[in-house]
Write a structure and sequence with these properties.
Length: 174
């Protein structure tokens, strides 16, 4: 893709690079938004209910979210960010690539937290019996803390991808 100026043509990145970077940004933004929604509405809202309501609702949410569309977004945003970073690197745009690699590392952090904190807690909650008070006590605080880390990681990754998009639209530095 090129942008014409008064006397010269300035290369601002290929269409494939643009599409991948936009896809990574949108996917990461959706994940940050999902995590944020849990932080500011879902978990506080469930917290107002009794133990049985809280545990039952979280079990239902965990079952519902385990679907192909979520999985595609969850892993697709990560993969798109890595591909975008590599494309920027190979395309001779090191400043843009640095921001995309930063986003990739931050998104990776959210995956690690998911794998080490949130998913094991979800599995434990699913296996917990009918002692809803004990199930909630062993779940809520740790799960929410993990989710806050995921929110911050994805929101910061989104900001880094925004910077990468801005740099991608400019002529490469000499």
């Amino acid at each position: 893709m090129t942008r014409a100026t008064t006397d010269t043509t300035v290369v601002t990145g290929t269409k494939a690079q643009s599409v991948t970077l936009v896809a990574a940004t949108v996917g990461t933004g959706l994940m940050a938004g999902l995590y944020f929604a849990f932080d500011v509405s879902v978990i506080p809202g469930l917290g107002r209910g009794d133990d049985e309501t809280y545990v039952t609702a979280m079990r239902n949410i965990n079952e519902a979210i385990d679907n192909g569309l979520f999985g595609l977004l969850f892993l697709g945003a990560f993969l798109a960010t890595g591909v975008a970073a590599a494309q920027q690197q190979r395309g001779g745009r090191p400043h843009t690539a640095r921001w995309a690699w930063t986003a990739f590392a931050l998104y990776a952090l959210s995956l690690v937290v998911t794998a080490l904190v949130n998913l094991p807690l979800n599995a434990r909650l699913a296996r917990a019996g009918s002692d809803f008070s004990a199930a909630r006590a062993g779940f809520g605080t740790r799960w929410r803390a993990g989710n806050i880390v995921r929110t911050l990681a994805c929101a910061t990754a989104l900001a880094a991808l925004g910077r990468a998009l801005t740099l991608h639209g400019r002529p490469p530095a000499p």
